[in-house]
Structure formats: C-alpha cells, structure tokens
Design brief:
This is DUF1214 domain-containing protein. This protein is of the alpha+beta class. It has two domains: about 260 residues, no CATH class; about 160 residues, Jelly Rolls. A hairpin with a 6-residue loop joins strand 6 and strand 7. Helix 2 crosses helix 4. The protein starts with 5 loop residues before the first helix and ends with a helix.
C-alpha cells in the first residue's frame, strides 16, 4: 500500500474535487464497504479545505495551545505534535463537510492516511483511537426521521457493533443501540429506525434526544484477516436535510477543530495524571468510549534497552485489545507496525492469560507491541463483551524491566519469532489492514 505526502494529497484532491462531486453515489454489492463513492467525495472536499485561512488559523491555535501541554515537554511529544494536530484538523473538516454538504451520509472517520487506487486522504486519528475498531459517523437531527440499513459480512462477521447518539461526534453518549438489541435476519440484514420518538419497547429503534446531532458507529474487528465491518446505508424518510454547503463547512470546520481539540486535551489531562508505567482499569461510564466496557491507559516511558511487560487475564471477555499511541493519543501507524494486538492476534499463555512486551526495539517475542521507536507514549487496554469480571484480577503484571531480563521474567514457553517470522507477521498484518480499503 502506498502513502502520499499530505501536500500531494491536497494538490490531487483540489483538482479532482469538482469531478468527484458529480459522481454518483449508488453502491453495489461489490462496492467497498468503507471507501465508498460518497466517502471519496467527502474526503476530497475536506482535503480542499485544509488550506483555507480560517482553518489554518484554527490549526495554528491548537498547535499553540497544545505546545503548553505536558506531552510537548517530551522529545517524542515535540516531534509528533504537528502530525497529531494535522490529523485532528482533517477529522474535524471531514465531519463538517459531511454535515453541511453531503448529510446525511455515513462516513468512515478516525482513519489512518490511505490510498485506495487513485483515491487518497490524509490521516484523521486522535482521542486514543483503536486499530481494532472501524469508526463511522453521520450527522442527524431530532426533527428528521431516518432508516439505517445494514448487512453483516458472511461468517465470521465483525465481533460486535454499536450505534451511539452524541451531541457531536466526541461528546458524551446520549443513547446507544448494540448488536444484541438489533434483530438480524438469516441473511445478515437488519434495519433500524432513528428519530425523536421513544422506543417504548421497540427493538431496532434509536431515539434522538433534543440535543442530538450525530451518530457514532463502532465495529470491532479482533481478527483482521477474517472479520469485516457491516455494510451500512442511511435513508432520510421524514423531513428535508439542511445542507448549508461548502462555504458553511469552512466555518463549521474551524469550530469543530476547537471542540475536538478541547476533548482531546481533556483526555490528555487524564492521561497525564496517571503514574508513569502504571495502569489502573475502570468501568467506562459513557463519557469517552463504550459504556460498560473495562478500560485503562498507561503513560509509558521506555528506554531503548527496556521493555514494559504486561500480563492480562481476559476472564470472560470476548474482546481484549492493547493499543499504543504517541504522546498525543494518536495511534502509532498500525497498518505496518505491530502497535496493537487483540486476543485473536496474540498468543495465549498456558493459563489463559496474555503477556505483551511493549518496547521500542524488537525483543524477539511473538507478542511484541512496537512503539515505532517512541520512548514515550500511551498504552490503552480495553476489555469488552464480557459476563462477570473481577476487575482487580485482570492485570497480573505491568512492569518495566530490562530487555536482557526478559528470558527470566516471561513464561518459559513464551512464543519467540525469528526475523523471517516477524516479517511474515507484519506482512499478514498489512494484508489484513488492506482488506478495509478494498472489501
């Protein structure tokens, strides 16, 4: 897969925008699930806004304010700062474009930079995004009525999926509908109604409260090789959409940049309060992340000759994931680095636990989590879809050690890899990620 510099992406997008907007958006059974025709139009329009003076000013304001935050005092924080701000800015521009020019249209968000054929887009990651998650969003209004239609992939499909109502894409959850609350037919098809009316016991219905303005949709893919996100479409069945156009999107994008930056800053503030190389898990309340899930973050600070060893007990959780980000909460390039592992990707210990080795350099163990050379960053742990859980017994070990000590610390049967096996592991990971762009 190829990645283009952002300047090239902007130039190509500006030339292609007018033609792309004229393209049809009708999907077919073989059309990509994520990089749809509408997605391409939204991304082209959003990219064309990045050089707008108002958006550049909003970007510079975030850059200035973040320069005073704790991550900016770190060498890795300084080096990653501009890239992290640029990702957040593009994500905000994309949301504004969908709302003001293409809404309601379900679009892929919190994305890595991608090139799919002749189409490309910059990255849009922030907020401790999860590589195992497909995030999509759509603007909505409680004054209107919608139907979202979906089709699950042939088995095995995605592990789980969730629809959330927000005031904006990064606000507290106002309501949700999970896979277990949705009736799905034998062919994997489903439809849910979305409007201001109360559910009153109805299944497949999502109520929009008066302050709702967006939906966030999450698909969990623990197995990148075999699992795929749902195909989704949205239809407006009552009322008329309010599309202010691209000029309004320029203004709204600047406001959205500020809102996103404030949310990310709050997340970073919480991370900064956690002791270095320690972790404490908590049950999510819906303020950020999936309500009811168990999660935690750790600020890591690891020298080149050190490793952070994490042994976790998934207990009854159907999903366990450990992901790494830079100091700003932007995921480390996971498409070609093993910067995240799920319980479907990692190798278990004999007792059912998982031991991960977080390190800047490859220690030769199968469950290595690659910091991509960063000595400082964030490690996030997520447990989802579980029955009973003893939260105090999930983390068996979270300890900074010397790499030379690993043979004495890790289980005797901890899986090791040769350089050739590591290359094959990374190649398989790339192939699993590339499926998202073409399937």
């Amino acid at each position: 897969m190829r990645f283009r510099p952002i300047a090239v992406v902007i130039a190509v997008s500006a030339l292609a925008l007018a033609a792309a907007v004229q393209a049809g958006t009708k999907s077919t059974a073989t059309a990509p699930t994520l990089v749809t025709a509408t997605q391409k139009q939204i991304d082209l329009a959003a990219t064309s806004l990045l050089s707008d003076p108002a958006i550049r000013a909003a970007r510079d304001s975030v850059l200035k304010s973040w320069s005073a935050l704790p991550p900016a005092s770190l060498k890795d924080g300084k080096e990653q700062l501009e890239g992290a701000v640029d990702d957040l800015v593009f994500s905000a521009a994309r949301a504004a474009v969908e709302r003001d020019q293409f809404g309601p249209s379900i679009f892929w968000t919190l994305t890595p930079p991608y090139v799919a054929g002749e189409d490309s887009a910059p990255g849009g990651r922030f907020g401790i995004d999860t590589p195992d998650r497909i995030y999509r969003a759509v603007s909505v209004s409680p004054a209107l009525r919608y139907v979202i239609r979906g089709q699950r992939a042939a088995q095995p499909s995605n592990g789980d999926f969730l629809f959330e109502v927000h005031q904006n894409f990064v606000s507290r959850v106002l309501g949700s509908l999970s896979a277990r609350d949705i009736d799905i037919d034998a062919d994997g098809n489903f439809a849910i109604t979305v409007d201001a009316s109360p559910s009153e016991g109805r299944r497949n219905h999502l109520t929009l409260p008066p302050d709702a303005s967006s939906l966030l949709i999450r698909d969990t893919l623990a197995d990148w090789d075999r699992q795929s996100p749902n195909r989704l479409t949205i239809e407006l069945v009552g009322g008329e959409p309010s599309r202010a156009g691209l000029d309004q999107a320029r203004l709204d994008a600047a406001t959205t940049i500020k809102a996103y930056a404030e949310v990310n800053s709050k997340i970073l503030d919480l991370v900064a309060k956690t002791p270095v190389n320690e972790i404490k898990l908590a049950v999510r309340t819906g303020d950020h992340g999936i309500e009811g899930a168990i999660a935690g973050v750790s600020r890591f600070s690891i020298k080149d000759d050190e490793a952070l060893v994490a042994t976790l007990d998934p207990q009854t959780a159907a999903y366990l994931g450990v992901q790494l980000t830079d100091p700003w909460g932007r995921s480390i390039p996971y498409w070609d680095h093993i910067s995240s592992l799920s319980n479907r990707q990692a190798v278990k210990n004999q007792d059912g636990t998982f031991t991960f080795v977080i390190a800047p350099r490859d220690p030769g163990y199968r469950n290595w989590l690659d910091t991509n050379g960063l000595n400082d960053g964030v490690a996030a742990v997520r447990f989802e879809d579980f029955g009973k859980a003893d939260i105090d017994k999930i983390v068996r070990r979270w300890k900074l050690v010397k790499v030379a000590e690993l043979p004495q610390i890790l289980p005797a049967d901890a899986a090791r890899v040769t350089p050739e096996e590591r290359a094959a592991q990374i190649a398989a990971r790339k192939a699993g990620f590339d499926k998202r762009l073409i399937n």
